[in-house]
């Protein structure tokens, strides 16, 4: 009886770990999606403050994500002026490809 209880506890631990890993991968995927789509969302919405609603993040958090992403990629993703925002060519490519990939992943998960 004692061994069976130990075995069942071990199985429950492994199941819980599996769920945590799947959730972690999903959460990581969601974080990556927000990071990759942030520059395009800012331009589509017409600015950082308007993109807050779409992204569910503060204006400063979105800005920091984009700055970090630009540093990691070694590419400028947004052309920022006092009057306007526009995606650079690298930003446009990243946004378009990210949307395609995320859409494909989402539709495969639903199938």
Summarize the structure.
This protein is mostly helical and 111 residues long. Helices cover 80% and strands 5% of the residues.
Structure description:
The model has no long low-confidence stretch (mean pLDDT 75). The chain is mainly alpha-helical and 111 residues long. It contains four helices and two strands; from the N terminus they run H-H-H-E-E-H. Helix 1 (2-45) packs antiparallel against helix 2, helix 1 packs across helix 3 and helix 1 (2-45) packs across helix 4 (89-110). The chain has a two-stranded antiparallel ribbon with strand order 1-2.
Keywords:
80% helix; two-stranded antiparallel ribbon; 111 residues
Gyration radius, in Å: 20 Å
Q: List the secondary-structure elements in sequence, H or E.
A: HHHEEH
The percentage helix is: over 70%
- How many β-strands, per DSSP? 2
Q: Outline, from the CA principal axes? A: elongated
Helical region count? 4
pLDDT averaged over residues: 75
Cα-to-Cα separation, first versus last residue: 43 Å
Strands of the widest sheet, in order across it, are: 1-2
Please summarize the sheet with the most strands: 2 strands, antiparallel
How are the secondary structure elements laid out?
Elements: H1 2-45, H2 48-55, H3 59-73, E1 78-80, E2 85-87, H4 89-110
Helix pairs in contact: 1-2, 1-3, 1-4, 2-3
